[in-house]
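Ops channel
N.P.: pipeline sanity check, posting one input/output pair.
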């Protein structure tokens, strides 16, 4: 069993932050899915990107540990496509 890694994830659609404490072996895709679910966003997770330190974490099959995430690191989940301002 791997150690847990606490992270903070800002979900831009609802402008809300959720704190997650997940095993460090959790995939980035699962992290994104849980963040969306935890903030009440019911859209397809594939329509969102996960960023850390300003860079997209494109390979979502990697684990949190493999991606180099640190305890209490701040991530953001953004829509993959920009929305027009009305």
């Amino acid at each position: 069993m791997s150690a847990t890694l606490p992270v903070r994830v800002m979900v831009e659609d609802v402008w809300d932050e959720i704190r997650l404490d997940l095993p460090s072996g959790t995939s980035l895709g699962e992290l994104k899915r849980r963040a969306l679910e935890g903030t009440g966003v019911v859209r397809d997770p594939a329509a969102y990107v996960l960023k850390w330190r300003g860079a997209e974490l494109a390979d979502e099959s990697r684990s949190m540990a493999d991606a180099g995430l640190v305890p209490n690191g701040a991530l953001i989940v953004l829509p993959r496509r920009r929305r027009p301002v009305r």
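N.P.: looks fine end to end. The chain is about 15% helix and 35% strand.
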